[in-house]
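Researcher: I'm comparing several assemblies side by side, and this is the next one on my list. It has 593 residues spread over two chains. Same procedure as the others: predict the full complex and return the structure.
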Amino acid sequence: MAVLTAPDRTSPARTPAQGRRVRGPRRTPPLVLAFVLVPLLVEAVWVFWPAVQGFYLAFTRWDGVSPPQFIGLDNFREMAHDDVFRSATGHTVLWLVLFGGLSALLGLAAALLLQQERRGVGFYRAALFLPVVFSLVATALVWQAIYQPDGVLNQLLQSVGLGRLRHAWLADQDTALYAVIVPALWRQIGYVMVLYLAGLKGIDPALYEAAKVDGASAWQRLRHVTLPQLRSVNAVVLSVIVIDSLRSFDVVWSLTRGGPYHSSELLSTYMYSTAFQSLRLGYGSALAAVIFVLAFGVICSYLVRAFREAD
Amino acid sequence: MSANSTALRRKRAATAGFHLGAGALALLWLLPIALVVVTSLRSFDDIAAHGLGSWPHSFTLGNFRQAWVDGGQQRALINSLVVTIPCVLITLALASMAAFALSRYEVPFRRSLLLLMLGGNLLPPQILLIPVSKLSEVMGVFDTLPALIGVQIGFGVGFYVFVLHGFMRSIPAEIQQAAVVDGAGPWQIFWRIILPLTRPALAALSALSFTWIFNDLLWAITVLRSDTKMPITAALIGLQGQFVSMWNVIAAGSVIAAAPTVAVFLRFQRHFVAGLNLGAVK
């Protein structure tokens, strides 16, 4: 799937003449085996083994000092009565819909606007893309200066006569979560735009010509040519968005730490503070397991597509 | 004639409209960046007197010195580079080895291995945080930079294997067969033939992984504790606590933290965008 958006000429799927098996000798030389096993071992130490432990810890109570104590499903029972967990789940879903939905829509819109090669378009693309290279921490600090009670946003509102809307954006429980989504969007839209730009480039211009000859309007061409042709890119974008949303941590952590009163708490930040600040490692692992379950569907569909492509 | 000039005029209007719209959008996007750069060059008294949003009345480079020396950004930036550069090199070396083996040889279970490695990278990091911090304690590397380097390599490698596999698989088999006939072993095929042909993908992934690792916060605050070892992202949060409401210093710190990745982006822009499209997973 990663190669879906790569240039077509390098895509081997189009050249079956090469044969399905392009590999060399039948018996694997020992060096080649080592080439696979060394990276696999590194990943096993830092990812697979910790992952197994992580799932086990979800069924324990552990303070990090004395040995973990197996308590079955108690952590998950506790979640049912945990208001913070419930609101963090709600915020995570809201984050997924707002952050994910808006970045896909606006990223597509930006790509449609900037798809034509014309003078100056490179500059516009670079401007939209530039925030992608910033760390989320730096992004968060930029926006914190904007959101301050005496910050730029409030000064702007004042100067256009909307002074009554002045607000401590990050300190108000009603606005904190939305105030955190905006910087995340600012950074994500350029990224999604790049994915869509590559997708748009791959559409055969003859399709548009044919649609024009048939008298299709610009809207009809978008609706019946562009969008269906972008289906595979949509799948990529969807995976990116879901995985990114569930991973979102840095921007919330640097702006609000999930506060005030958990009003911008996501599952990822709640998991981190539970584990490393309250030192409830068992419950934190259980929260991590919930995040995994939410991501599981997307991970599987991604792997299925990767599997189909791998040969 | 007049129909022609109407069409021309309409085309001009469309071009003007495009530049107006796209220009406004670009301006909106660049405005927060401009704000930070300007703020980082103003004095504290100026900001206190006129507010963050006002036109600058002062110019100073002292904020950078304050963030760099008093705020510990110098050490943090060195830490970041000490982690990021070996991570990029080792990850890509390991990933290209595995991708070479899996794409060019009949390794047993090759497809399952490939997906296993990719699957590891798709896991939400949260499930790994607690065990990884405990594991680094057991290995005696907790709160040291090698722990951060280790986990970044382990967590990242699967994704690069997958992308490079896709790329190497498309290199024609005949090239390799010719080398085999000439008596080349796997190492020579890898080093002399496949790796040079993979250079575009490697360039793209280097630019990309540099920014990803450099910008990471979560792994750093998971395996590191002491302030002196934190990379620039975590140090920036520390700066925010140390210089509360001193926006001039915080802005200077943000500029310092963003400068290396912006430099990589501007220098390798083409590779960067190509890399994102090669690896549409993050």
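Model: For your comparison table: Chain B has a mean pLDDT of 89.
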